[in-house]
Amino acid sequence: MNKEKKIAISAKNIVKDFGSLRVLNDVTLDIYKGEIFVILGGSGSGKSTLLRIMTGGIPLTSGKVFFGDADLSTASDDEKEKIKRRFGMSFQSSALLDFLTVEENVSLPLTEHTKLDSKVVSIISRMKLNLVGLQGFENYTPSQISGGMKKRVGLARAIAMDPEIVFYDEPTAGLDPVVCAVVDQLILDLTKKLNLTSIVVTHNMESVFRIADRIAFLYKGKLLELGDKNTIRNSSNPIVQQFIKGEIEGPIQINDSD
Amino acid sequence: MLKLFEIVGRRTINWFQLSVDFIRLFIETLYWIFVGPFKGKPIKSKAVFEQMVFMGSNSVIIVFFVIFFTGVVLAMQSAHQLSKMGGTIYVASLVTISICRELGPVLAALVIAGRIGAAITAEIGSMQVNEQLEALDTMAISPVRYLVVPKFISLFFMLPCLTVIGDAAGILGGYVIGVFTLDINPALYMQTALKYLTLKDIYTGLSKPFVFAMIITMVGAFMGIKTRGGAVGVGKATTISVVSSFILIIVADCIVTGVYYFINF
Ligand SMILES: Nc1ncnc2c1ncn2[C@@H]1O[C@H](COP(=O)(O)OP(=O)(O)OP(=O)(O)O)[C@@H](O)[C@H]1O
Ligand SMILES: [Mg+2]
């Protein structure tokens, strides 16, 4: 991190409206190569939306997202595909294809994008499933496994292609503390040992301080704070303080109507 | 008054936008069928085969019975009319021609729109609301290539096959009535049935299912992709899909029949 900082993703003045609701309001941030970048914020603050905009999953109202020099929104279809192959995404809702088995879900990007032999594909996907502690469930369908297990299959699928950039939308929500720690460790290992870039959305403060290199704090679609763990811990912003301490009293009113 | 214009205007824009999106989807589908394979993205033959089994063999029985009984009804109805003129024997050609030109293709298409079109919308729609389509897209897998193309190709070939089977069932229905209730000699029945059946009747009838198949898959897929709002949304989209397919099938039938009627070839 302290070496030269190369920018992996650069989001500039992102605005997103859903109908008349402004969900993201002028968010600008850079994500460096090789770091774990955590997006923090209350429920409904626009974290998933920001992630999905960065992956090109939903269109933005205005602003730009750059992967290196490439702009996803103006790239041609071929370029878009090339960029997309460089990253993996684990969805908040898992988003597994329910007509495929667990193993087929994980191997899907491999069978689609590589010419590897099916045996090799099978070995790779089993290895990825092993990493998330799901050996023995290869032939189950998504409807036969629990929510937390689905989440881990989604994680395995996200890293199946050994991507350079991985987006995780609440990877540890709904997992027990032990598995949660395992997943955190996995994210750490992948990022630090393989020098990936990870963008993690999470609510879990314990995870945040365990894995984060830098943290962005979103509140009602605005970027309130951006910095390393200490910047956030020592933030003078009362909203940030209330959030990381999980207090009831403070400027965040959950029945706020605006 | 201004409000009225505003509403009408917005509706028109919406419809226009929907049509543009629909045509885009159709073009994208054709792209993955005709261009994609030359760019190293072959058609998924295994998925096509699976879809053929699902669409074809599982629909045979229902198509058979629907058109068989239509043949029966048609024979009874026309016998009633024709007997007054002493032309009961013409039941044979009337039933055969109506089934082959018109009723076979349309009824088969309507049955399949209800069965397969609805299934396509429900499947793609629930994938849409569960972010599975977005997941495919994020993995750089085109949902159109992965999901729509196999269904498109499969139905394009299965619906004509089902129509042929349906036609045969309808003719059989007429035959049963003709031979067993109207006491027409079986050989004579078949002879009359085929005597007036021209080549044109056959290709008119058999060109329709290709058009209907495209309508069913494209409307089904389009409505699925446009689905919003959870399980309720999937239900709504499925209903709209079936109703729109029905209407478009009838309209297309009218157009195709018109084309053959006015342009004599
Ligand atoms: N498809 C959509 N249509 C309309 N509004 C949407 C849509 N998706 C999200 N929103 C709205 O955008 C806002 C932010 O949603 P988002 O999913 O980004 O929140 P989040 O920060 O990820 O919350 P959580 O922590 O609960 O997952 C919410 O107010 C939500 O109502
Ligand atoms: Mg979210």
Structural class by SSE content of chain B: mainly alpha
Mean pLDDT of chain A: 86
Count of DSSP helices of chain B?
9
* Rounded radius of gyration of chain A (Å): 18 Å
Counting DSSP H or I runs of 4 or more residues, the number of helices of chain A is 9
CATH architecture level-2 label of the domain at 1-86 and 198-258 in chain A: 3-Layer(aba) Sandwich
Structural class, from secondary structure content of chain A? alpha/beta
Query: What's the rounded overall pLDDT mean of chain B?
Result: 88
**What are the segments of chain A in which pLDDT stays under 50 over at least 5 consecutive residues?**
none
DSSP strand (E) fraction of chain B?
A: under 5%
First-last Cα distance of chain A:
39 Å
String of helices and strands of chain A: EEEHEEHEHHHEHEHEEHH
Shape of chain A: globular
Tell the overall outline of chain B. elongated
The largest chain-to-chain contact, stated as pair and per-chain residue counts, equals: A-B, 23 and 13 residues
Write a structural description:
The complex is a heterodimer of chains A (258) and B (265). Chain A is an alpha/beta fold. Chain A has a domain at 1-86 and 198-258: Rossmann fold (3-Layer(aba) Sandwich). Chain A is 36% helix and 25% strand. Chain A is built from nine helices and ten strands. In chain A, strand 9 (214-219) and strand 10 (222-227) form a beta hairpin. In chain A, helix 3 (102-113) packs parallel to helix 5 (147-158) and helix 4 (118-131) crosses helix 5. The longest helix of chain A has 17 residues, at 177-193. The model of chain A has no long low-confidence stretch (mean pLDDT 86). With 265 residues, chain B is mostly helical. Chain B contains nine helices and no strands. Chain B is elongated, with a radius of gyration of 22 Å. The model of chain B has no long low-confidence stretch (mean pLDDT 88). Chains A and B meet through helix 2, strand 6 and helix 3 of A and helix 5 of B. Bound molecules: adenosine-5'-triphosphate and magnesium ion. Adenosine-5'-triphosphate binds at residues 18, 23, 41, 43-49, 92 of chain A.
